[in-house]
Amino acid sequence: MKKLNMLYTGLVIAATMGSAHAQMRIEISGVGSNQIPVAIAGFANEGVSPQKISEIIKADLERSGAFKIIDAGVIDDVNNIDYSGWKAKGADALVVGTVDALADGRYDVRYKLLDTFKQAKVSNLDKAVTAQFTRLSAHLIADDVYFKLTGIRGAFSTRISYVKQEGNKSYQLMVADADGENEQLALRSNEPIISPSWAPDGTKVAYVSFEQKKPVVYVQNLITRARTVVANEKGNNSAPAWAPSGNKLAVSLSKDGHTQIYTVNVDGSGLRRISNSAGIDTEPQWSADGQSVYFTSDRSGGPQIYRMNPDGGEAKRVTFAGSFNTSPRISPDGKTLAYISRRDGNYQLFVLDLTTSQELRLSDATDDESPSFAPNGKYIMYATRVGGRKSLAVVSVDGRVKQRLTAQAGNIKEPTWGPFMQ
């Protein structure tokens, strides 16, 4: 929680613009298989809080597609629960809580998750938080409910980053909650910003900026706003991707005449070439265990996805279906590859089961780009075009649950989903 508080505090202090109001409109379609029925009660006295805790929890769980939400009204006496009554209403579990304003200006947020069958408490949390962290406390409660009822870690308290473009000369690198709320500005530029990538500790983002009239790779600290030039070689410097250790990045550079994959330390030292082909090698992505780098290469004639050792050596082709596959992203467990494939002239999001070689198309759109896995591996965020504008979309890895996040203004693209915070 301490790291989360530091990151959120840093963003609030550093941001030159931002809002506590909704930044995106979320549309949800489809449901997960075997939804768990959960009753969520309004938290007693939550009107004293700047955020309505129970509504945020409800929205998080509903958005996941894993739960059937039952509105439980407001339960003031959280110590006297009619378990049989809630079981009869079809609820397997019940979420209740209270919010109290403390004398020091903080808010005491308390929650319980109750099992209606066992008539027992499954989990509880008690956090005293400042006003700016009431939203975070709600996301953390939703994370706890998700984990206790599914066995999978929730990702509601994580952050996302993306680029917002307004007009031809306004580019903004934004950071927001995973639901698109609490949007904060990390960088503004009159030149394009592309390819943001989160550091494993969640306090820094690497990206490519064209402010020097050419693509240059930077790393920016989201708390202090200090930034470092990581790659500014001759030609193009692009596609930064963090190593799981957090001490180096893989990048794509054209310094030797055609684009190849290199690794470089976070401070810009130790540049080392790791791919060696006569074609274009680009878009590197590390596996979570640090044992592989996935990348796009046209060495076989058209763009396909390959895998190699982080120290270089032989590259093995991974994708074979379709003649155009780019933007590889590997799931946290290393079992699923997400990518953009061109089929019948459409650019669409696909996933490949690396164990069975089974491929699944997750999008019905025609212009998808920039997939990014949630840190729990259960959802993928990507950019897509809807009605002539770029917006963000989220889909479950089985394709059953789909969300679209539409900005109030401008195009939003180049999303990247941040890591779990410890």
Characterise this structure:
- The chain has 422 residues and is mainly β.
- It has two domains: 31-150, 3-Layer(aba) Sandwich (Rossmann fold); 159-417, Neuraminidase (6 Propeller).
- The protein contains four helices and 30 strands.
- A hairpin with a 5-residue loop joins strand 26 (369-373) and strand 27 (379-386).
- Helix 2 (53-64) packs across helix 4 (134-150).
- The longest helix has 17 residues, at 134-150.
- Residues 1-22 form the signal peptide.
- One of its GO terms (biological process) is protein import.
- Part of the Tol-Pal system, which plays a role in outer membrane invagination during cell division and is important for maintaining outer membrane integrity.
